[in-house]
Amino acid sequence: MGAEAYGTPNGAERVRLRNNIFVGHTDFLQPFENTCLAYQETFPVDPFDMDYSIITGAKGNPCPGAHDLCAVSPGIVNPSIDAFDAHLLQTSPAIDAGTTIGAPTDDFDRRARDAQPDIGAYEWRTYANLLALPLMLKGY
To answer: What is the pLDDT of residues 5-28, one digit of tens each?
Structure first.
C-alpha cells in the first residue's frame, strides 16, 4: 500500500514497504523461474524494509518481515497479469492483517479504512457496508 524512503542520502537509504500484496509470475526473460520479490545487487546494505505484506509466487519464496504472510493465496479477485484486480475476496487472509503505522486512511477506491486496515490497495467491504455507502456520502 505504501512505500516510504527514509534516511540520509548516502548510498545506504532504506525503502519501507507496508500493507502490500506481492504476486509473482513467470519471469519474462527467464521463463524457467519466477520473478524476484525485490532485486538488489550493488547496494552496501539491503535497502528494502518489508512487513505486513502478502507475498506469493516470488522466486525463492521470500518472507522478509515478521508479520508477512508468505506462500499463501492473497485472496484477490484476479491475480492474472492481463486482468489484474486486487479487490479482496471475503476469504482473503489480507483482511484485518495490516498495520495502521504509516498507512493511508483511505484505499484506492477512496473509501475510508477501518481501525484494523487490510493488506493491499483495497479495504474489504461487506455487502452491508456497500449498501450504507450512499448514506455515508450524503452525511447520514
So the answer is: 565 667 667 888 999 999 999 998
What's the total number of domains in the chain? 1
> 110-140, pLDDT tens digit by residue?
999 999 999 999 999 875 455 445 544 554 4
Characterize the bridge pairing of strands 48-51 and 21-23: unpaired
109-106-18 Cα angle (round to 5): 105
Residue 91 buriedness (CB in 10 A; 0-12 / 13-18 / 19+): exposed
Cα R_g (the chain), whole angstroms: 17
Query: Nearest to residue 70, comparing CAs of 24, 102, 28?
Result: 24
Reduced to 3 states (helix: H, G, I; strand: E, B; else coil), residue 10 is: coil
* The amino acid at 49: D
Structural domain boundaries, residue 119: 1-140
CA distance 96 to 77: 17
Q: Is 136 helix (H, G, I), strand (E, B) or coil?
A: helix
C-alpha cell at 47: 535497502
Q: Nearest CA to 36 among 45, 25, 46, 49? A: 25
